[in-house]
Amino acid sequence: MTDDQDPGTPQGVGRTALGVAYARAVESARPDRLFDDPYAALFLRAAAPAEGGPGTGGLGRSEAWTEMSAHLVLRTAYFDDYLRDAVTEAGCTQVVLLAAGLDARAFRLDWPDGVRLFELDLPEMVAFKERVLAEADARPRVERQVVTADLREDWAAPLRAAGFDPARPTAWMVEGLLIYLEAEDAAALLRRIGALSAPGSRLALVRDGSLRRTRELARRDPAMAGATRLWRGGLRRDHAQWLRRHGWLVHEIREQELRERYGAERVSEGHGFLLAERPLPVERPRRPAARLLVLDPDGSVFLQLHHDAEVGPHWVLPGGGLEPGEAPLAGALRETVEETGWTDVVTGPALWRWEHDYHRGDVGLVRQHEVIYLASAPHRDPIGDLTASFAADGILTCRWFTPKELAEVTEVLWPPQLVSLLEDLRRDGPPAEPIDLGYVPNPQEPGSDG
User: N or C end: fewer C-beta atoms under 10 angstroms in the chain?
Assistant: First the structure.
């Protein structure tokens, strides 16, 4: 594009940025606004001649747009807070906004000294945005570099050429982008982010599956067709688990936490985000623990579903960390009583020992050394109000599994070879000495790095 050409109004995927700007402009006019983006209205006014006016083609009266707009507002507020925390608390000195669109955070947020912010987008989007900002004499509050790139191609090279340093912790933002990419392109984008992320880096995403109702309404709404026909599905895999198995710790920010932060009326059912971090290279402290393999008279096993930033959802035997000086069997019994309310569990010999890694919210990365004992109990649910105990130990739910049901579990099992260990136990009985399984790595993504 030559200097005398009018960059015009963004087209294609770029047009969706105008919808985001509209939602931000409306929110900014509210007395109870979650953020203030004065630049959103500037972009809309600049696009008005090409759009035939500042309106949105009836979107404001659409149920689908009402829900989508509420999501865009919540998403903007959450990502504002994410970036503030990343540069002030987590030590990130670089920020990269991928498919930045009409994002004006470089101009409207306060930034600490020493931060560099990079915005990447297609040439036509960059041209329109820079023209509007220049006409408004807008001045960024942070050192800002704008990079033109197609995110389906090699965007790392132009990013590096603009001064990006992969050795520095970086806060990455992928706001509303993945759904516009094919699965292969989305995976390639995330792999490239990982390759460029120094320890201490952060990445924020919308939690996949959190917008099913909103997206279904949008697909049925003709007024939303301009955006929905561009949707390509994105990664098509569980985002959190994909990231965990590619070296990230992933914290899932769910609707209850968002309601407490932004107000119940601002958060629809199912809303959520993912906050991923590249762990620092630290030596993991040793954590001794013990668990009980509780079987009922028919051979079903009792398991609890836990959640972990490093592993994600996983089924484990009751038990947990030992207190100072506590014997393993006594600790396993104590933890089991706390987690089930059962005081009549009958214990047997030690079966297995193993080591594994995980992330404790109060400690960080640990290497747990466990011993697992055989036990038996009647088939029943936990007894009493265990809400506080479940919350303290990160237990989501619990249940009994028959051997067939256990073999069909899709989440991670701890130990991962639990199905075959149980088969050996039923066939051969308890071992004379506990079997040492050694260190067992957490499961990795099947296949190569896809």
Answer: N
**pLDDT (tens digit per residue) in 237-296:** 899 999 999 999 999 999 999 999 999 999 988 789 999 999 998 899 999 999 999 999
Q: Where are the beta strands (DSSP E) in 269-394?
A: 273-277, 286-295, 301-306, 314-316, 319-321, 346-360, 364-376
- 293, 296, 298, 300 alpha-carbon torsion, rounded to 10°: -50
Q: What are phi and psi of 171, to 5 degrees?
A: -100, 110
CA nearest neighbour of 363 among 197, 246, 243, 249: 249
Kindly write down the DSSP assignment for every residue of 208-259, as one continuous string.
TTTTHHHHHHHHH-GGGHHHHTT---TT-S-HHHHHHTTT-EEEEE-HHHHH
| Contacts of 429 by beta carbon, 8 Å cutoff, 6+ apart | none
Strand 286-295 relative to strand 319-321: parallel, antiparallel, unpaired?
Answer: antiparallel
On whether both 255 and 134 belong to a single domain, the answer is yes
The residue count for the chain? 450
User: CA angle 147-152-155, nearest 5°?
Assistant: 35
**156-194 pLDDT, tens digit each:** 999 999 999 999 999 999 998 999 899 999 999 999 999
Task: Say yes or no: 225 and 80 in one domain.
Answer: yes
Q: Are residues 356 and 270 in the same domain?
A: no
Collapsed DSSP state (helix, strand, coil) of residue 110: coil
Place of tokens 């040793």: 286
User: What is the pTM (predicted TM-score) of this model?
Assistant: 0.86
Whether 168 and 82 have beta carbons less than 8 Å apart is answered as no
* Maximum pairwise Cα distance, the chain: 85
Query: Measured between alpha carbons, how far is residue 377 from residues 156, 298, 372 in Å?
Result: 57, 11, 16
Q: Which domain holds residue 407?
A: 286-439
**Cα of 127 vs its chain's centroid, Å:** 32
